[in-house]
Amino acid sequence: MIGTWAAPGRVNLIGEHTDYNGGFVFPFAIPQSAKITARTLPGDHWKVTSVDLGETVEATRLEPLTPGWASYVLGIVWALREAGHSVGGAELTLQSDVPVGAGLSSSAAIECATEAALADLYGLEIAPLERAKIAQRAENAYVGAPTGLLDQAAATLCVPDHALFMDCRSLETQQVPLAVDQAGLEILVIDTQSKHSHVDGEYAARRHSCEEACRILGVESLRDVADLDDALGRLPELEGRRVRHIVTENQRVLDSVAALHAGNFTKLGQLMTASHISMRNDYEITAPTVDLAVATALGAGALGARMTGGGFGGCVLALIDKGLHDVVSGQVAAAFATQGWAPPTWFAARPGPGARRIA
Ligand code: ADP
Ligand code: MG
């Protein structure tokens, strides 16, 4: 058997830095995807090609922490075997249009497309959430990147015109309608083409502040903070602002779910903008580039706008009237040019499907 499988990149609609605090996230699949054309090979033989890089890697052994892009593919073979599944050799040819390193999760797209291919080729019965966990294991233990489950859950579970609500503590998920197209709207993803170099250190510092706040408050995770005012009275100023972001952000995710069930995109837009302000003022994870993109999008008529992803650059989401696509993107590009910054890129992100066979 030979076939082709695809899995998408993703953006997080709202709910930033909540995942490691036992909170809520709300991603959806973007139209761009990684495609894997694959067939079985006899024995322990893997031949992995990236058409985009023009490189082929052959392997007869699976060694965790082998550097290089092929580990995102081979890690899936390894993780499937670790989970007790019987997987043999394969020839896997990868081609992806998910932008790399822009916070759109090109890595999970490759992993989840590979997993879909191998599961079908080898007749494996694996439930969707279990697939996401296996792909996460591949990225954590084989590639060596300590990431959460959000990317792989989105790349596996998403369905068109919906966003995926996920409770990062219980791992309960819910498909929530995000039919922007039918409402005459569009989610514009603006890649600011900027990423500060100190992101890892800042990320570790935020996690540390959250752990310190939990210790002071005597809770297992910030998910358990029921009375924000009481917590703020007991915390130093910095930890207080960090906790205020997490607690209010979790509430904004829940409010966004409710707004979408009610078809209230005006409310969704307000929540997105409030999220950005909280990330900017309280969690302090934005950057001049994303702040300017958000302000410009709002000034050009967006219903709401926010940075998405870990922070300090990356992409901005703007919820806009479809007819404003050129106005909003044009004004953001002009604002960047005025600053002398590298030009941003953008695309409309109608929520798409998760991992699947396409040929
Ligand atoms: P992100 O997932 O945010 O895009 P990561 O650092 O997690 O960034 O993953 C990017 C890595 O995934 C690249 O450095 C490369 O190793 C691999 N990758 C992504 N796209 C491709 C591709 N088309 N071909 C080969 N490797 C790719
Ligand atoms: Mg990644």
Tags for this entry?
binds magnesium ion, Ribosomal Protein S5, domain 2, globular, 25% strand, Alpha-Beta Plaits, 41% helix, alpha+beta, four-stranded antiparallel β-sheet, 10 helices
Main sheet, how many strands, which sense, barrel?
6 strands, mixed
Segments where pLDDT lies below 50 for 5+ residues? none
Query: What form results from the Cα inertia axes?
Result: globular
Question: What order do the strands of the largest sheet run in, or round the barrel if closed?
Answer: 5-4-6-3-1-13
Question: What CATH first level of the largest domain would be assigned?
Answer: Alpha Beta
* Tally of discrete structural domains: 2
- Average predicted confidence as pLDDT: 97
Task: Please provide a written account of the structure.
The chain is of the alpha+beta class. The protein folds into two domains: 2-176, Ribosomal Protein S5, domain 2; 178-349, Alpha-Beta Plaits (2-Layer Sandwich). Helices cover 41% and strands 25% of the residues. The chain has ten helices and 13 strands. The chain has helices at residues 71-82, 106-121, 128-143, 150-157, 199-217, 228-234, 237-261, 265-281, 288-299, 325-339; strands at 2-12, 24-25, 27-41, 46-50, 55-59, 89-96, 162-167, 173-177, 185-195, 304-308, 313-321, 345-348, 356-357. The protein has a six-stranded mixed sheet with strand order 5-4-6-3-1-13. Strands 10-11-9-12 form a four-stranded antiparallel sheet. Helix 2 (106-121) packs across helix 3, helix 7 (237-261) runs antiparallel to helix 8 (265-281) and helix 9 crosses helix 10. The longest helix is centred in the last third of the chain and has 25 residues, at 237-261. It is globular. The N and C termini lie close together (11 Å). The relative contact order is 0.18. The structure holds adenosine-5'-diphosphate and magnesium ion. Magnesium ion (MG) binds next to helix 2.
